């Protein structure tokens, strides 16, 4: 049975191609949503780009017929833009708000097509609640939505006889069990099936059908930064492996995501010379917002946003003094051309060959923004994205549909990809307690 899907403004701004994601059903856009979208068309942000994109898409469909009467979509559905002639029930206050006008359209569609189910699609939680109170079926939008609790963690456990645990490192690993559904580069904690406390940590090599020990972490660590738990050990292994071209680190504050990524990046650029430059970036929220409104030169403008990056680099440099005769601060690394720190605003359109790129706070990016970043990668470039899906500042995404989670779900089966979810806070006992309790 065909259905009527009425789309809210935020759906169009989140995904301009959303009108093609509802199969052979009827897609209805209230004229008020178009007016709201139009307000963003001059923005330089991702919202502005999406606003202009949806306008172009709708204009192309307009050439094939009257949108007010309905135009056929390639998948067999029908696209229609309508205006409501009816108000909301008298019990609904603020009838003149745009949200209420959009709800009015959805209600009119539902009442005038009683035989066809009507579904209101919005990413606004409060609007879904209000729609439900008015008798509308309301749903969130994401074509491949997946709960954060189901996110691939990058780790699994395997129980084996105790002797196999003991011989794991001496024998160079163990065969990968058949039919276990492991992903490439997945971490495995190998435990004694009898319940003994000793265990081993390995990594899945799917092509060889083996689980092998971690081998890339020197005993002295990287710039004297040493992993403090099994998850950090796997993370550092993946960060130091040049065959892993795309790596994601997910975890709450204080789990070491940014610190480990920076330490590995500095090591690869300054010590091994595997990459020509370490490029570190983070979204100046929202992505695309210019920093011109801040006083001072470019470095002064960036300082408030990039201070966490500077702090981590200075910490790494300070740790290195324990084992080296010289240490370079972030300004020295920048002067030598080894380090570049800039906002994601300026990434679009660039090509980045032979660079170790770290994108911090990637949970604030949309799937389209993540795609834009990764497609900048030139030959020999490695990209690392870090973030906490539970700390999102972007009002148009949430913990389930942000670009970081979307990326993990899409790339998990790929050989060039590695992922670790870090769960144990290592910044300090106080920081971990605060992250868990507050």
Outline the structure in words.
- It is a single chain.
- The model is unreliable at 286-290 and 323-327 (pLDDT under 50).
- This protein has helices at residues 9-14, 31-38, 46-62, 98-112, 125-133, 162-167, 230-240, 257-271, 298-320, 330-335, 367-374, 403-411, 429-437, and strands at residues 4-7, 26-30, 71-72, 78-82, 118-121, 137-139, 155-160, 174-175, 187-192, 199-205, 210-213, 246-251, 277-281, 339-341, 355-359, 382-387, 417-422.
- Helix 5 links the parallel strand 5 (118-121) and strand 6 (137-139).
- The chain is globular and about 75 Å long.
- With 438 residues, the chain is of the alpha/beta class.
- It has a six-stranded mixed sheet. Strands 14-13-15-16-12-17 form a six-stranded parallel sheet, sandwiched between helices. It has a five-stranded mixed sheet with strand order 7-9-10-11-8.
- Helix content is 32%, strand content 18%.
- It has three domains: 4-139, Rossmann fold (3-Layer(aba) Sandwich), CATH 3.40.50; 148-215, Roll (Archaeosine Trna-guanine Transglycosylase, Chain: A, domain 4), CATH 2.30.130; 221-437, Rossmann fold, CATH 3.40.50.
- Helix 7 packs parallel to helix 8 (257-271) and helix 11 (367-374) crosses helix 12 (403-411).
- The longest helix has 23 residues, at 298-320.
- The two termini are 47 Å apart.
- The protein is built from 13 helices and 17 strands.
